[in-house]
Amino acid sequence: MMRRAAEINSLHGIPVAAGAPAISHLLFADDSILFTKARLEEADVIRYILNRYEKASGQLVNIDKTTMSFSKGIPLECRDNLARRLGFVVVDEQQASLETLNGTGEPLGSSGGFMDAPLGHNPSYIWRGIVEARKAIQGGLRRRIGDGLTTRVWHDAWLPVTQTGRVISPLVAGYEDLRVADLLVGGNGSWNEELITSLFLPFERERISNIRVSSNRPPDTWAWCGEKDGVFTVKSAYRFLAANGDAEGLKPKNGGNGGRLKRAGDKGWTPPPREFVRVNVDAGVKEGEGVGMGLVCRDEMGRVLWGSSVVQGQSWDPQVAEAAAVLEGIKEAIRFGHKKVILESGCLTVIDALKRKAVGRSIFSLVIDDILALCTSFNSISWSFVSRANNCVAHELAHPVPRVASSFVGSEELPPSVNNAVRFDLSIIQ
Questions:
Q1: What's the pLDDT tens digit per position in 368-402?
Q2: Fewest Cβ atoms nearer than 10 Å: which of 242, 279, 403, 404?
Q3: Chain centre to alpha carbon of residue 57
Q4: Which pTM does this prediction carry?
């Protein structure tokens, strides 16, 4: 509930660096710390969440042992109003001040502030908890590349699928201040392969080439590598610490499924309503061969209007590949002038993200943003999950043999395996 409230901006946590994910809560074995702005509206949200928790769990919050503290700039009248609204005891937690950060006098997110502030000789309980959480945050933050203008090649953690995210290739003289934007070609979101080859070790060349860059080129931002959407969660921080042998003292609370999705009912492939088209997409990642994406569009009679096999040399994360397949399907639907579209994918995570218009900081979220930005081209667009068994046509197109790109209009040029899948779907609906 805390995470959901933060997602819809009902609560505002503390960002750990400029542009970095905000922390709205820390959950320990026996205690919890909540972070919000000093506003009555957010106090009401906290009270609502605690009431819901009490009703759902049967456990009561011990008000006598619940305390609250404020940063130095909060007026006394505001403190009193918030304390009365929540019924908590106000304590003086000078070291927990979100403005002074243990007496450093530096605001949160400034250079040398939160990440470098020492524990101190007599730290408060809150400050000790924040510093403990910092261990996970430092290791799990990565730069999500948008336009590449603010990410430093040799200094920032921006490489995916590496332990530290930092470049280890030897620094080449004259490139000390290189930005990721300098590795991109023009505005088309492609990498300068010649420059990359001259600067980086082979395995880092591959990592860089596989980073998908949005054609919209949004600003770079910090993302949390422990979650697909790049948003920090306490549970993922615990998993991160556990994987690195440093999880003592941090334990996730019971309850909830961490935002994980339950499989929806399998409706099977069905024709769209009249005047609509149904676009099915699928993606497959094969090591050493990159990504294959299959797209097919059919009308209310089940007739194939168009389709294609798209082959990319990059090796993306499977969910990024599935989202990219949806993006390609949307682009083709626009190109063919469709106005009422039902899009089906076998990736429930992608469909859920599109239905929720999910906001995140990861490469996956960037693709979701690109998809949603194109939806204004339609009079009607909806998203639907379909099992692989009922997504056979798109699946066959995503795994062509031989592995080459192709496209077609109508059903006359369908490959035999694809044609068989189309005929099977028709036999079911007739």
A1: 999 999 999 999 999 999 988 789 899 989 987 77
A2: 404
A3: 29
A4: 0.60
